[in-house]
Amino acid sequence: MFQRYTCIEEGVEMGKSQVKNNIRKLRFNHDEMTQEQLAKKVGVTRQTIIAMESEKYAPSLELAFRIARIFGVPLEEVFYYTPEDE
User: 3-class SS at 29?
Assistant: First the structure.
């Protein structure tokens, strides 16, 4: 069985994403799930989860759906978009 990992290039400075999320809150409300546990469940590295929680990385649509499915909530409860002018 192969696991797919989404990675972030090291050394590339990324700005804040306009895609915001509630991942940290959802992890806490789901038996205080660790970043590592969530990463393994959705097939990415812990660093990817860290980057998403700190809003330095916006996930692919597929990864966003996988995360929402793990928490059993609609996509909009995990991720939301904030336009730049707000």
Answer: helix
What does the alpha-carbon distance between residue 51 and residue 61 come to, in Å, rounded to a whole number?
16
19-to-4, 7, 56, 85 alpha-carbon distances in Å: 23, 18, 9, 13
Provide the percentage of residues in the chain whose pLDDT is more than 90.
Answer: 70
The pLDDT tens digits of the residues spanning 17-50 come to 688 999 999 999 999 999 999 999 999 999 999 9
Is the Cα dihedral 40, 4, 73, 25 positive or negative? Answer: positive
Please name the helix (run of DSSP H) or strand (run of DSSP E) that holds residue 42, with its range, or none.
helix 35-42
Task: Using a cut of 0.90, tell me whether the model's pTM lies above it.
Answer: no
